[in-house]
Design goal:
The protein is of the alpha+beta class. It contains two helices and four strands.
Length: 110
């Protein structure tokens, strides 16, 4: 998107250059409502009488950003868990458990 000033209670949209079907939005951009940023999508539609109108969808960015931050934190927690397991010599415990499981790995003809 281009550089532009986003003012409160307004939105700026640009032509969607990547639309592949009739259902894809015609314009996309950003909106600022009460100092909270939103994604803005706009469709140009036509009534049964042939009059054109705009259908506008606004979605807050914060919940989406928070979701991605949570996913990143979950990944970091996983890495910390792996690191902790290595420190606790968990590899040896895993190998011991796997050898017990391998003892039951008989071929059963079905």
């Amino acid at each position: 998107m281009s550089d532009y000033e986003l003012r409160d209670r307004s939105f700026n949209v640009f032509k969607n250059k990547f639309a592949k079907s009739e259902n894809d939005y015609d314009f996309t951009g950003d909106a600022l409502i009460d100092d909270q940023e939103h994604f803005a999508n706009v469709w140009v539609k036509t009534t049964k009488n042939g009059d054109q109108y705009l259908s506008i969808s606004l979605k807050p960015k914060k919940p989406i950003i928070d979701k991605h931050i949570k996913e990143i934190k979950d990944d970091l927690d996983y890495e910390k868990s792996v690191e902790y397991a290595k420190e606790q010599n968990a590899d040896h415990l895993i190998e011991t458990q796997q050898s017990k499981l391998d003892a039951f790995d008989d071929e059963i003809p079905f």
